Amino acid sequence: MGSSNSLIVTLFLILVSNIWAATSQSIQEKFYTCISVNSKLPIPFSKAFFAPGNASYSSILESSAMNLRYLTPSVPKPQMIFTPLTENHVQAAVQCTKQVGIQLRFRSGGHDYEGLSYASQTEQPFLLVDLSKLRSVDVDIQDNSAWVQAGATIGELYYKISQKSKIHGFPAGLCPSLGVGGHITGGAYGSMMRKYGIGADNVVDARIVDASGKILDRKSMGEDLFWAIRGGGGASFGIILAWKVQLLPVPETVTVFTVAKTLEQGATKILYRWQQVVDKLDEDLFIRAIITKENGAQKGKQTVQNSYQGLFLGRADRLLGIMTECFPELGLTQKDSTEMSWIQSVMYIGGYPPNTPPEVLLQGKALFKNYFKAKSDFIKEPIPETGLEGLWKSFLEEESPLMLWTPYGGMMSNISESEIPFPHRKGVIFMIQYLTNWNDAKPESTTKHMDWVRKLYNYMAPYASMSPRESYVNYRDLDLGSNKNGTSLEEASLWGTSYFKDNFNRLVNIKTKVDPDNFFRHEQSIPTL
Ligand SMILES: Cc1cc2nc3c(=O)[nH]c(=O)nc-3n(C[C@H](O)[C@H](O)[C@H](O)COP(=O)(O)OP(=O)(O)OC[C@H]3O[C@@H](n4cnc5c(N)ncnc54)[C@H](O)[C@@H]3O)c2cc1C
Ligand SMILES: *[C@@H]1O[C@H](CO)[C@@H](O)[C@H](O)[C@H]1NC(C)=O
Ligand SMILES: *[C@@H]1O[C@H](CO)[C@@H](O)[C@H](O)[C@H]1NC(C)=O
Ligand SMILES: *[C@@H]1O[C@H](CO)[C@@H](O)[C@H](O)[C@H]1NC(C)=O
């Protein structure tokens, strides 16, 4: 078997190299030939390479791409999609993109806000390496840890943990379809952040392919690079193959709730109060505010709704005690509160209908997709009621506006700003994500909605963190600036300090050391000196 297989492969390679010699090869052919020679395992063409025009090409390209803005016909598409089946294939992909002289983009879960993992506005041609076939999850309860490959979703990790133990969890994103590759390297906050910090705070080892195509782990990459990949943002330092994460205790029973208040029900006063208490609450309690526009009780009249969605790492009676003492204005009752297992709470917060079996997490699919634009802010002083009223006015002017207000405090204040590159710590009361989404590719729709969110962002300037106005790197925002040919370090530091504050300088130094030729680059990659 083995020898006849390798004979076929050898014959095939001879054939391919003859074609190479005989004709001037396309980029696809050159890349395929190089991969076949460089990877220790022969790769069946039919399983891992997709060129434009191939029936599977579009479905793979679109499979995990979350922002439809970056799939429209005018956006340049990859010359080829490669889906590695082994770690070794990823090494070969680095070596071969260099050899062929093509740009490289790589994708884990495809949730990048500016499509940077599957579209390149600045450099063509480019190859897309899609890591979705590298998605094993290996949970070791005795060791309190798990190895998870980059192409797995965070929901798959949560599910696999819950299959092994009812009292272990991991503190990362709220949306189960996020890819662990891009998500954790940009930070990864979620409903247990006030107790345990973010995902990147709880990584203990990693495997990565560097710019020379070598596989490194924590020991061989050294503490500088290991620091940089825990929060320094995607695709600047190498391709993460897998993370080793630290599992953390969760109670067997947790409690969730959602309480909604419209403007007519006193939303403004309650949200003002929320800002005063939310970062000081017991660290077992996480209450975020989801702010939307809804039809009001009065026919034809629209209103703004604030939904308070909570996760409490404990039972309902203790939760109600805390709420009565610290935040009675919300009026939380026993009836609003539901006790469940931690994995059920993941499903609840992820937006699945009640009683959906958690096995759905294994499908790794997003619940929705649309055209969207988002921005973020960090708030350090409560926004006064007059400020909130201006926000509502802006909200009522837009079709599908959304804000997520995520509370900080607790463990987030206990970790120093320079512990990892993610710098948004002590002093932050909450983070805001502003988002608008729409359903068509028309340029005038795009302009209209993008203008709206930019105007809202300007309106919020007086209430947001200043010098720098901080932003979350996992909410990538190209309005903050981008690398162009010849961009100076000063220009890059505008968005760089917004995402990383003083850690930006250390990231630039590490980047210069580990990738001096700037092989891993994109519109907002960390520049070299
Ligand atoms: C619906 C939705 C919900 C979200 N919810 C949350 C949330 O609850 N908490 C939170 O913190 N964030 C959240 N985010 C933001 C999310 O963390 C980022 O978009 C993150 O970058 C997604 O990672 P990904 O692998 O899915 O995306 P990708 O698009 O695959 O990658 C994002 C970036 O990382 C790079 N990258 C991808 N794989 C690797 C790798 N293996 N090694 C190195 N770099 C890589 C890509 O090239 C790209 O630059 C949400 C986003 C969306 C769209
Ligand atoms: C599309 O690509 C796959 C995988 O490489 C291959 O098996 C298939 O034959 C291709 N189909 C067409 C129509 O080119
Ligand atoms: C944060 O530090 C304070 C003061 O040392 C401590 O009381 C609190 O328990 C810590 N919080 C967490 C989540 O570790
Ligand atoms: C960037 O600029 C350099 C010199 O200014 C030039 O040689 C190079 O081709 C440019 N690259 C791109 C992608 O435009």
Structure explained in plain terms:
This protein has 529 residues and is α+β, with helices and mostly antiparallel strands. The chain has 3 domains: 2-130, Uridine Diphospho-n-acetylenolpyruvylglucosamine Reductase, domain 2, CATH 3.30.43.10; 135-252 and 341-368, 2-Layer Sandwich (Uridine Diphospho-n-acetylenolpyruvylglucosamine Reductase, domain 3), CATH 3.30.465; 254-339 and 370-463, 3-Layer(aba) Sandwich (Vanillyl-alcohol Oxidase, Chain A, domain 3). Helix content is 34%, strand content 20%. The protein has 17 helices and 18 strands. It has helices at 2-22, 27-38, 45-48, 55-63, 87-100, 154-164, 180-185, 193-196, 218-228, 267-277, 316-326, 342-350, 385-396, 411-414, 443-460, 489-500, 503-514; strands at residues 49-50, 80-82, 103-107, 126-130, 137-140, 145-149, 168-169, 203-209, 215-216, 239-246, 248-249, 254-262, 285-295, 302-312, 337-340, 371-379, 401-407, 430-438. The chain has a 7-stranded antiparallel β-sheet. The radius of gyration is 24 Å and the shape is globular. One 2-acetamido-2-deoxy-beta-D-glucopyranose (NAG) binds next to loops.
Distance between the termini: 52 Å
Strand content: 15-25%
Bound molecules: flavin-adenine dinucleotide, 2-acetamido-2-deoxy-beta-D-glucopyranose
How confident overall, as mean pLDDT? 94
The CATH topology of the largest domain turns out to be Vanillyl-alcohol Oxidase, Chain A, domain 3
| Unreliable segments of 5+ consecutive residues | 16-23
**Order of strands across the biggest sheet?**
15-12-14-13-17-18-16
Proportion in helices: 25-40%
Rg, rounded, reads 24 Å
CATH architectural category of the largest domain: 3-Layer(aba) Sandwich
Number of strand elements:
18
